[in-house]
Amino acid sequence: MARAPLMQLSDISLTFGGGALFDGVDLAVQAGDRVALVGRNGSGKSTLLKVMAGLVEADRGQAVTAPGVRVGYMEQEPTMAGFATLGEFAGSGLDVSEAWRVEAVAEGLKFGLDTPVEAASGGERRRAALAKLLAEAPELMLLDEPTNHLDIEAIAWLEKELKETRTAYVLISHDRAFLTNLTRATLWIDRGEVRRQERGFAEFEAWRDKLWEEEDLARHKLNRKIKAEARWAVEGISARRKRNMGRVRALQDLRAERAGQIRRQGAAAMALESGQKSGKVVLEARGISKRYGDKLILRPFDLKLARGERVAFVGPNGAGKTTLVNMLIGRVEPDEGSVKMGANVEMEVFDQTRSALDLDATLWDNLTGDPEMRVSGQADQVMVRGTPKHVVGYLKEFLFDEAQARAPVRALSGGEKARLLLARLMARPSNLLVLDEPTNDLDIETLDLLQEILGDYDGTVLLVSHDRDFIDRVATQTIALEGEGRAVSYAGGWSDLLSQGGGDWHRPEVVAAAAKANKAEKAAAEKAKPAGLSFTEKHRLEELPAEIERLEAEIAKLEELMSDPELYAREPVKFQKASEALSARQEKLAAAEEEWLALEEKAAG
Question: What angle do CA 143, 144, 146 make, to 5 degrees?
Answer without folding.
Answer: 75
